[in-house]
Each structure stands twice: as structure tokens, then as C-alpha cells.
Amino acid sequence: MLKSVNVLDLSRVLAGPLATMLLGDLGANVVKVERPGSGDDTRGWGPPFDAAGESAYYLSVNRNKKSLAADLGDPSDRELIRSLIASADVVVDNFKRGMLAKNGFDLAALLAEHPQLVWCTITGFGPESDRAGYDFVVQAEQGWMAITGDENGAPMKVGVALADVVAGKDACIAILAALVARGRTGRGRHVTVSLAASASAALVNVAQNALVSGEEPRRWGNGHPNLVPYQLFEASDRALVIAVGNDAQWGACARALGLHTLGADPRLLTNAGRIAERGRVIATMTARIAERSAATWIAALDRAGVPCGVVRTVLESLRDIDASAATGVSPSVPGTVRMPPPKLDEHGMEIRAHGWNAFAPVR
Length: 363
Description:
Elements: E1 6-10, H1 15-25, E2 29-34, H2 56-59, E3 66-69, H3 75-86, E4 90-93, H4 99-102, H5 107-113, E5 118-123, H6 135-141, H7 162-185, E6 190-194, H8 195-201, H9 204-213, E7 230-234, E8 239-243, H10 247-256, H11 260-264, H12 271-276, H13 278-289, H14 294-304, E9 308-310, H15 314-318, E10 323-324, E11 328-329, H16 348-354
Parallel strand pairs: 1-2, 1-4, 2-3, 4-5, 5-6
Antiparallel strand pairs: 7-8, 8-9, 10-11
Helix pairs in contact: 1-7, 7-8, 10-14
């Protein structure tokens, strides 16, 4: 879908590389510019490392790219980068404020010189902030940790660097929208995304709960503030989750579990009623579900049309999908894996010799 779209990736770590990997999955030509010698920070973020010495972290977000080692402080490398910018459709960077200018790249002048260019800048806390953007800090400051974890425990971060992931996907969306606009107007634009803004927007219904009620959202552990039952339960052999999203599903759930008295209680026929009786509903379900295996309950709930699932490990979940130790989890968008993540400067010679023509088919 993005065949012949040239993307210059000046970013590093996670949000930017994820955005450019998604563009590469969709068919774009992506040149990843890295520091000579060390490359992207995440090349050293291990163990684990694969047999070739590449970190799993780096491998997870850098397929479908060609690597060029270039020093922005070196005049000849700066000219090389300028030549790549001149024929690029998209540039992605996540430099701290002022770093581009310090290295001789005036963004306003570049956009004036190349009006077709879409330039995406990813920051931690917005374009006016000098703070470095780290997912853990963003999760803390944007309210995520306050609502994550056991209800009587300490604030907890999410198990994945999800603020980075959301920001990377937001960046990809912004870039694609800017490309569509360019198709209509012939002009590119500068778009900015921040981890903090993406994380705040991702609070969705939790933020709205707070805005409507004026009250601080609390931690619910594996429960849900607005739905009952919608949480984790322990069967006799392993954990499972039940996610009742409407009143009809509640009736089906009670029948599947054999909780006929609970299901017939008029006080529990609506979600608001079940929230008011949360303690009684959950205690009764907890005792019942502990009597039998997870597989038994999943089968009964599935037959009844009640959303449910067992809690699986990461390796268990990966067995059901197309995933590779070399190229990561298969694209979540309608894309393809064309190249494994590159070695540092693996394509430096051909890019220096041919520029974007390094992506031309070999004849």
C-alpha cells in the first residue's frame, strides 16, 4: 500500500522505530539512521540476545528497514542526510528540543525547501519541553499507575511499555493522515506526537469517569469500575476471566455457572444493581468457579455466549499466531515482512552509493 513511499527514520528506542516499522510493514522504504559504533540504544538492551548478538528489544520494532550509520556531527554525513531528506516522503525524529538545530538542521527551512515533506516529531512531553520521554515516567505522571495494580497495593506500571506503543501508533496515524492530505493539496506538513498526550488520551473512559464524577478513579485490580462481573476468577486449576458486558450476558452467565438464585434476583438484573451488590455477586461466583476446572467453565460459558478466557502465559499466546524470533510478531496491520531487522550499517555502502535507489529491485 505504501510502495515507493520513502521514510527516513532518525528516531531510536521504541515509539519512533515502532511507527516506522508499521510504515515498512505497509510497504514503505525505510532507512534507519543510527549512531556509528553503537547504533540504536536498544541494541544493547538485553539479555536476551539472539545468536548473532542482537537484543530481542531491538529486533521487536526494526524489521523492514535498511540501516545506515551516520554521524550528524560529521559534515559529509550531514550532506548525505540532507540528500536523503530531499527525496524522502516522510521523516521521523525523536530528538530532544534543539538537537536538530545544533547539528545544522533547521526544520522550518527544510520544510520550506521541501514542501512535499511530511515530518513527524515524537517527544516525551510536548514540543516546548526539554524533558526526555521515558515510558515509565509517562505512565506515572499521566495517571496510569494510579489506576493499575491491586486495589490495596502500590501503584503499578503496565507490563509493556504501552505509552511508547500508543504514541508510536498515534505517530503512524498522524503520518498516514498527512500523506492523505498531501495527496489532495500537494503539500506536506510537520506533525507532532508526545508520549504524554498519547497516554492521557488512552485513559478514555477512566478519564471521562473522573471528569463526569469529579472523583479520583481508584485501582480495581482485575475488576472493572463500571461493570460487574468483569474480572479474574480462580478455577480449581488456573485463572480465567469473565467479561459480562450487558444484562443478557449476565443472565446467561448465571445459568452457565448454575447460580440460578443469583440470576433470578431482581436486584441484579441490571448492571447498576450488580455494581451496588458487587461484593455479594463476586463472592458467590468466586466460590462456585473454584469448584471446577477452567476448561469446564470455559466450555459452559462459551456455549452460553458469555465472553471469557483463560489467563495464558506469553509463550502460550504466541503459539497461536505467526511470530518469529528473527522478525517478531507478524504485522497487526495488513502488511508483510520483507526484511529482518538490519545489522548496524548493514546497508551503509549501498545507501551511500545509491540513496533511495538502494530499494530498487535487483535486475
